[in-house]
Amino acid sequence: MFPFPAVFTMNMVDWIFLVGVTVTLVGAAVAYIGFLAWIRRRWTHASAVILRYRITRSDDKEHGQAFFHPVVRFTTSEGRVVTVVSSFGSWRRPWPRGAKVNVRYNPTDPQCAEIQCFGSTWLLPLTVMGLVVWIWTLLIYFGLWRS
């Protein structure tokens, strides 16, 4: 009769657990978005050039998944030339060598810099929100928490 029959068979403890997990995950995503907003207000912009890629492998295994971390060079507002390896790695090379990208960097520590792109900004919050949706789908629709 109802599309989500498990909703009506969950007891109060299950609901409290489900809401607690959801609030925790959404809170983590919101905190990260707040951190990004703080960075945007406090960190300085610069134009950078992709020099090359540093390749790391998952699990530090020889045949693990390769991740490409861009190595960028930019000039700070004080005129200092800085070369940084991005902490954000991708399974592909998103930019060709020599491509110009925008970076944000901490003016007190220019080695702390990030390339401004969709992945480095939104990947973590969207992953957390997707996890929340996935958990709700499993628990409610498939009724894994039936009494």
Beta strand %: 25-35%
* Physical arrangement of strands within the biggest beta sheet: 3-2-1-4-5
Structural class: alpha+beta
How far apart are the first and last residues' alpha carbons, in Å? 19 Å
Order of SSEs, N→C?
Answer: HEEEEEH
What average pLDDT do the residues reach? 81
Q: Strand tally, please? A: 5
Count of helical regions: 2
Q: Give Rg in angstroms.
A: 21 Å
Helix content: 25-40%
Characterize the overall form: elongated
* Spans of at least 5 consecutive residues with low confidence: none
- Most strands sheet: 5 strands, antiparallel
Describe this structure in words.
This protein has 147 residues and is an alpha+beta fold. Helix content is 37%, strand content 29%. It has two helices and five strands. The model has no long low-confidence stretch (mean pLDDT 81).
Which features would summarize this protein structure in a list?
alpha+beta, 5 strands, 37% helix, 147 residues, elongated, five-stranded antiparallel β-sheet
Concise account of the structure shown:
The protein is of the alpha+beta class and 147 residues long. It is built from 2 helices and 5 strands, in the order αβββββα.
In terms of topology, how is this protein built?
Elements: H1 12-42, E1 44-57, E2 66-75, E3 81-85, E4 100-106, E5 109-115, H2 118-141
Antiparallel strand pairs: 1-2, 1-4, 2-3, 4-5
Helix pairs in contact: 1-2
